[in-house]
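Data card: per-record layout.
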Amino acid sequence: MRYVNGKTVSALALSLALTSAYSNAESVKASDIHDSMVVMDTHLDTPALLVQPGFNIMHAHNVEDDFSQVDVPRMESGGLDGGFWVIYTPQGPVTVEGFKSARDTAILRAMAIHKMVEANPDTFTLATDPKDAKAIADNDKKIVYISMENAYPLGEDLSLLDTFYKMGLRMVGPVHFKNNQFGDSSTDPNGQQYGGLSPLGEKLVKKANELGIILDGSHAHDDLLEDMIRLSKTPVILSHSGTKAVYDHPRNINDELLKKLVASGGVIHVNAYGSYLTELPSDPKRKKAYGELFKQMGNIAEMTPEQVAALKQKRKQIDMEHPAVRATFDDYMAHFLHILKVAGPKHTGVGADWDGGGGVERMMDVAALPLITERLLAEGYTKEDLQDIWGNNVLRLLTQAQEYAQSLK
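The structure for this 409-residue chain is written out next.
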């Protein structure tokens, strides 16, 4: 037995007390380091909520209540300074009508991002230059770079990329869930159409290079990613992807291709989308219930706040009757640590897919982001490594993209 503050305690109790004190001290240290850095995520799908009636990003929300994962109070709690806010358009028919509809959707998403910034000038600032990030964070504001997930809305008129560039676009991914006019998706159920980039896709790469826009290979087929690495004059990003070495899913990248990405100067940002992290059990009843709910939805942007609330209540009911089985934080970190081992901290970052399906147990919204910093410090990574991971790496890519575009002038 030992004595602590005049009281007798067992060796086991003393060991647990000391371990707890050490853990708390390490957690405080990690929190201080996390708060001292510019912390960015490269894939925030939150603009989809900005057009949703009743959603106010300035107010605190709860993922259990309304399924949202990003708002200003939680950004503050999680030390998230901002990142790349996504113009996302679902893949539709590759037709003139489809292009027009998608173009209108994309413009409305871009306008929603601008309205968020303009309505809250003391909180958000639009960023277009790599130097903007630190200046904005130092001014205690949130960083708003703009990216486009799925270039489908551009149709076959690449001059539209100029339009979106003028609206602040600084990252673009050619494809999403299915093949389109620019090339092959990693997940099209019908397989490949072009064997990588289409001829128009090759022109998209050239156009993005000329403007100084980062090219994003997430969702792209491996062959398309290889084409972009080969053709792009500046390094390519995977804004939200995982590793096949941990879980062999088409959305993830194998080590051989990851090494090619790194050798070209590219960066991979780690996704927290559960079904891309590990094999999750299928629940046919849950799938059926959600399918029926989605059929009833229509255009959520045209609903009243009361209708949106009723829809979310139905979703909560489905989750209660058929609970989701989620990937864990350890599943996420297994991808992260393997990628760091292969790519190194100068080619790795965070792109968790918030408000786009991302989230794992213990890390279901941006308030939990310090867990990543804490774990990486425990694994032996330094503050300098973390500064690269949380922001410097993607800013380097943006710098290289802009310097190349400037060199053409």
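Known properties of this structure: The domain at 30-280+326-407 is CATH 3.20.20.140 (TIM Barrel). The CA atoms of residues 202 and 231 lie 8 Å apart.

See the next section for split statistics.
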